[in-house]
């Protein structure tokens, strides 16, 4: 039976912001993409300034169950993301490090709280609260959220064109700069914290992060680094059918290491070079392999929504949210939950909202929800924040480019894809592949992305200019930084805070 017929739908988003926002989860991700444009300032006039939104955490009663969930319901949930091409949208998310301009130290929660309050007051955002703490902001279909170490994230609205996406990025950066500068706070566009140790990073007052912080050291050596010292930029893209999802998922996974090379931007750690071009990407290889990686099963002939559901059912859970509290369920599976076997909530069965939240705790290089997330790129300066969605839109939203990618990668083996995943964070474009190097793959792929954007007809090719220079020279952003470090900066990593200040 379809989900809709089995639920008494009382749809509230996890941040309590109503149906329009339903689905922003871990790191404020947008759910199913609806038609949207940037909200005009005029449309917001007269709204109560700096209002507060009800609890940010997932509302456990968001979907009232009339019958227990079945696996078919979970499959139907993913399939409900299918939409016709004219309704495909682009959702861009990016994270950045806040720091004190005078000391370069990471900003603490009370400083972040003041920035959030300032943005709410001056730019008409609604506050998102967890208990008595403001932990994010919401405006229309955009949201601002905090990563575990205070990394500041914009989760953009689902937009129609890359022009809208880049305008949204720049509007956001203008706002945080306007508020931050008055407080002596700057923001850094880099993939890994270049100067400060883990012990120097503040901890944000969010319940789910406490559960993750306690669990991470049990399942990998680098999970805390992932939580507290990394920043990314990613794009979320739609699909029209199960077949379209499969094709885009495979193309995205195969090419994720190519994107990692093009956007590699995390070469420093604790004041010196760290031996990687993308330390952020490497960190994911030993964070928690139960929930990360290259998902080889996506390339199986049998793959589809149901196969992904089977995978997700066995990914260990982090938490269940009940009575405004996060309940630690680490190590249990959602499959156990479906059978009422969670000792922490004995006899309780999950809602669709629990499933939606669980999907946000899975971190592969490409993630499936009711859309696909491309997760392989380091954070960086604003032009690269606009280039990353342009790269993937040109490849995946154009049928000809998508088919070319699938043809190009169809005979790549599991071992070759995994080799690229492991080696590209270290050697970037210089990583050997068959009879050439990753640089040659990047040249070919970038041409396909440009051609795809040309055929879209929105004059969006210019957004790839920033990465054209990277690919044509064969020098990653990280290598440019390392060169500056050895020469102009005289081995002083502090200079990167000025160089990559937004």
TrEMBL record:
Q: Which family does it belong to?
A: Belongs to the carboxylate-amine ligase family. Glutamate--cysteine ligase type 2 subfamily.
Query: Region (Disordered) spans which residues?
Result: 13-64
* Regions of compositional bias (Low complexity) in chain numbering: 13-22
User: Which reactions is this enzyme annotated as catalysing?
Assistant: L-cysteine + L-glutamate + ATP = gamma-L-glutamyl-L-cysteine + ADP + phosphate + H(+)
MF-aspect GO terms = ATP binding; glutamate-cysteine ligase activity
Q: Which InterPro entries match?
A: GCL_bact_plant, GCS2, Gln_synth/guanido_kin_cat_dom, Glut_cys_lig_pln_type
- GO biological process terms, semicolon-separated: glutathione biosynthetic process
Indicate what this protein is called per its UniProt record.
Glutamate--cysteine ligase
The alphabetized UniProt keywords are:
ATP-binding, Chloroplast, Disulfide bond, Glutathione biosynthesis, Ligase, Nucleotide-binding, Plastid, Transit peptide
Organism name: Urochloa decumbens
Please state what class of enzyme this protein is: ligase
Q: Which SUPFAM superfamilies match?
A: Glutamine synthetase/guanido kinase (SSF55931)
Q: Where in the cell is it found?
A: Plastid, Chloroplast
Q: List the disulfide bonds.
A: 166-386
Q: Tell me how this protein assembles.
A: Homodimer or monomer when oxidized or reduced, respectively.
- What EC number is given for this enzyme? 6.3.2.2
Q: Which PANTHER family match?
A: GLUTAMATE--CYSTEINE LIGASE, CHLOROPLASTIC (PTHR34378)
Give, as in the UniProt entry, the pathway in which the protein acts: Sulfur metabolism; glutathione biosynthesis; glutathione from L-cysteine and L-glutamate: step 1/2
Q: Which GO terms describe its cellular component?
A: chloroplast
């Amino acid at each position: 039976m379809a989900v809709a017929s089995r639920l008494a739908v009382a749809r509230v988003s996890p941040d309590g912001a109503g149906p329009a926002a339903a689905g922003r989860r871990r790191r404020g991700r947008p759910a199913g993409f609806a038609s949207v444009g940037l909200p005009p300032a005029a449309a917001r006039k007269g709204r109560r300034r700096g209002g507060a939104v009800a609890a940010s955490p997932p509302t456990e009663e968001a979907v009232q169950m009339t019958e227990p969930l079945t696996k078919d319901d979970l499959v139907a949930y993913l399939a409900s993301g299918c939409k016709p091409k004219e309704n495909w949208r682009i959702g861009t998310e990016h994270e950045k490090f806040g720091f004190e301009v005078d000391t370069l130290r990471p900003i603490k929660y009370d400083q972040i709280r003041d920035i959030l309050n300032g943005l709410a007051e001056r730019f008409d955002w609604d506050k998102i609260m967890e208990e008595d703490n403001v932990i994010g902001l919401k405006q229309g279909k955009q949201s601002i959220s905090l990563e575990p170490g205070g990394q500041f994230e914009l989760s953009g609205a689902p937009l129609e064109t890359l022009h809208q996406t880049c305008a949204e990025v720049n509007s956001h950066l203008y706002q945080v700069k306007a508020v931050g500068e008055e407080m002596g706070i700057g923001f850094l566009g880099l993939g890994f914290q270049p100067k400060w140790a883990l012990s120097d990073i503040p901890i944000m007052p969010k319940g789910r992060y406490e559960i993750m912080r306690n669990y991470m050291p049990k399942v990998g050596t680098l999970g805390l680094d992932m939580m507290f010292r990394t920043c990314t930029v990613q794009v979320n893209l739609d699909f029209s059918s199960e077949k379209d999802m499969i094709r885009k998922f495979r193309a995205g996974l195969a090419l994720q290491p190519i994107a990692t090379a093009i956007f590699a931007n995390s070469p420093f750690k604790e004041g010196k070079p760290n031996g990687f071009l993308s330390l952020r990407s490497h960190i994911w290889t030993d964070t928690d392999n139960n929930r990360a990686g290259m998902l080889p099963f996506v390339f199986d002939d049998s793959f589809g929504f149901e196969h992904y559901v089977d995978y997700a059912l066995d990914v260990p859970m982090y938490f269940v949210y009940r009575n405004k509290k996060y309940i630690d369920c680490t190590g249990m599976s959602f499959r156990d939950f479906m059978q009422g076997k969670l000792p922490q909530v004995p006899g309780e069965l999950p809602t669709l909202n629990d499933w939606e939240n669980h999907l946000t705790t899975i971190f592969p290089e490409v993630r499936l929800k009711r859309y696909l997330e491309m997760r392989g790129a380091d954070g960086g300066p604003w032009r690269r924040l606009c280039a990353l969605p342009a790269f993937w839109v040109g490849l995946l939203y154009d049928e000809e480019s998508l088919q070319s990618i699938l043809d190009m990668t169809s005979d790549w083996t599991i071992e070759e894809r995994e080799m690229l995943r492991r080696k590209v964070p270290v050697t970037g474009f210089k990583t050997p592949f068959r009879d050439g190097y990753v640089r040659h793959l990047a040249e070919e792929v970038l041409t396909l992305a440009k051609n795809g954007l040309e055929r879209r007809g929105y004059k969006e090719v210019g957004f790839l200019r920033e990465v054209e220079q990277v690919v044509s020279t064969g020098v990653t952003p990280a290598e440019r930084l390392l060169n500056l470090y050895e020469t102009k900066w005289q081995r002083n990593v502090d200079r990167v805070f000025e160089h990559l200040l937004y």
